[in-house]
Design a protein that fits this description.
278 residues; alpha+beta; D-amino Acid Aminotransferase, Chain A, domain 1; D-amino Acid Aminotransferase, Chain A, domain 2; 2 domains; nine-stranded mixed beta sheet; six-stranded antiparallel beta sheet; 8 helices; binds N-(5'-phosphopyridoxyl)-D-alanine; transferase; D-amino acid aminotransferase; transaminase activity
Length: 278
């Protein structure tokens, strides 16, 4: 696997960063995950825009122009032996000594990227759906920033693994926020409902695509606060992310969602997404 670090491509195993890197010491950095289908990055412009927004939010000057980022990603994609990829980009505030929470001036950001093979979500998961559990959302107040400091997400996601489930749905103050690593949609009363972008969730690129597809195909959609009871009583629940696309959640905390199988609106949306992503 060929990866990228600070201006050069090299085998992943040969790359290393300083133990003083603020990404390592403080989780002081931001990242992106970009799906690549048949060597074409999907929604590249939107991912790069979100990356520059994340950098601005943490007060770190963007080390690259959008054209440079696009070139970096293209260079990474062409060096991989597989066609469908998941490209990971990360920028940290770089190494600094002595250790100090305050920003180093000037920072020397660390830019790291690598690509993984991106297998299509297994047909059995698309066909039968997945299980989810729920937890209170105990994360910080800026979940819209795609920060690498992900400890709360890590713990929430592991709780689902320990429970034999695929995702943990998070609720804050009785309202749906998102999943540990995904956005959440529900179908209730024949409408697709999902929370509006806010500091309580990451605005997923897949989330935006699903909203666009609902509008394009005239499916009833409401973007608004979603109460925990509505999620628990929903006919359908979906999760969306760049790596999992759209999956139906068929049990929540061990209770069947709707009929306990992926619902009709899910099937339509999944179909539209497959048509759209190529
Ligand atoms: N996670 N919310 C959170 C907390 C996420 O971590 C992700 C994605 C999403 C969905 O965003 P998108 O549709 O742009 O992938 C929502 C990525 C895939 C990850 O951390 O691996």
């Amino acid at each position: 696997l060929t990866a990228y670090l600070n201006g050069r491509y090299a085998p992943l195993g040969e790359l290393s960063v300083s133990v003083l890197d603020r990404g390592f010491l403080f989780g002081d950095g931001v990242y992106e995950v970009i799906p690549v289908y048949s060597r074409h990055p999907f929604r590249l412009e939107e991912h790069l825009k979100r990356l520059s927004g994340s950098l601005a939010a943490i007060g770190l000057a963007d080390p690259h122009t959008p054209a440079q980022w696009a070139g970096l990603v293209a260079g990474l994609i062409e060096r991989q032996p597989f066609d469908d990829q998941s490209v990971y980009l990360q920028v940290t505030r770089g190494p600094a000594y002595p250790r100090n929470q305050a920003f180093p001036e000037p920072p020397q950001p660390t830019v790291f990227a690598f690509a993984d093979p991106l297998p299509a979500p297994p047909a059995a998961l698309v066909e039968h759906g997945v299980a989810a559990i729920s937890q209170p959302d105990v994360r910080w107040g800026r979940c819209n920033v795609k920060a690498i400091s992900l400890l709360a997400n890590v713990l929430a996601r592991q709780a689902s693994v320990d429970a034999g489930a695929a995702e943990t749905i998070l609720f804050r103050d009785g309202l749906l926020t998102e999943g540990a690593a995904s956005n959440i949609f529900v179908v209730a009363g024949g409408r697709i409902v999902t929370p509006a972008p806010s500091t309580r969730m990451l605005t997923g690129i897949t989330y935006d695509v699903v909203i666009e597809l609902a509008r394009l195909h005239g499916l009833p959609l409401q973007i608004r606060e979603v109460h925990e009871d509505e999620v628990r009583g929903a006919d359908e629940i979906w999760l969306t992310s760049s790596s999992k696309e759209i999956l139906a959640i068929v049990t929540l905390d061990g209770t069947a969602v709707g009929n306990g199988v992926p619902g009709p609106i899910y099937r339509q949306m999944h179909h539209h997404y497959q048509q759209f992503k190529v």
